[in-house]
Amino acid sequence: MPANLTAAIPALPALLLGFFLMQTGNTFQGTILTIRGEIEGFALAEIGAVGAGFWAGVIIGSLRATRVIRQVGHIRTFAAFGAIAATAPLVHLLVVNPFVWIAARALTGFCSMRHVRRPGSRALFSGRQRGAAIALRDFRISAASN
Known about the structure:
The protein has 146 residues and is mostly helical. It has helices at residues 5-8, 12-39, 44-72, 74-87, 90-94, 98-110, 114-124, 127-145.
């Protein structure tokens, strides 16, 4: 762990860029699925449920990811969740069914890196440094979402 914030600065841009790209991609996916659901003739409640499915997955993932990280380790969890989160959106192309879309979106939320990336921040920074890095990360996430 770096002794001071200056020593950790070289690693910070890569960390923040990764967070920014993940959040931007997730925001685009949510927008595109809403538009595509409308084109496919889904009811508004079904389109809303697809969007809510992501957050349901995030909540479930927040409750379960710690156990997975303890069982297989941070790096393996990151790799597996990343692979699943990257391939789950392909289901939207293959199956046009709102219930399948809700499940795929929930799987994407479950495997979102929200649960896995924070231990990475803990390993890189300590105490006040981590607070500053998390504040900067949250600012970048907010910028990516808007």
